[in-house]
């Protein structure tokens, strides 16, 4: 539902983006999670909340993608 809302221009808040990032990670859709992360980071270079960085590091760590953690 959150992905649909965002695609329709509704609910574009950091909370909904974080919920979507969590859902994609839990569902094993890493490529989509990375795409969302790139979008969030590029649109909010100086205002990206630390929790997003923590989440991406956690995703990479759980998938054994340690090199990605430092990019």
Automatic annotation (TrEMBL):
Superkingdom of the organism of origin: Eukaryota
Entries under InterPro entries matching the protein: EMB1417-like (IPR044646), PPR_rpt (IPR002885)
NCBIfam families documented for this protein: PPR (TIGR00756)
Name of the molecule in the record: Pentacotripeptide-repeat region of PRORP domain-containing protein
Species of the source: Nymphaea colorata (pocket water lily)
Lineage, uppermost ranks: Eukaryota, Viridiplantae, Streptophyta, Embryophyta, Tracheophyta
């Amino acid at each position: 539902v959150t992905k649909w809302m965002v695609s329709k221009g509704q609910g574009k808040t950091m909370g909904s983006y974080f919920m979507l990032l969590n859902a994609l990670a839990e569902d094993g859709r890493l490529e989509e999670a990375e795409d969302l992360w790139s979008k969030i980071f590029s649109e909010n270079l100086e205002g990206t909340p630390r929790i997003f960085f923590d989440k991406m590091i956690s995703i990479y760590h759980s998938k054994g993608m340690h090199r990605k953690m430092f990019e």
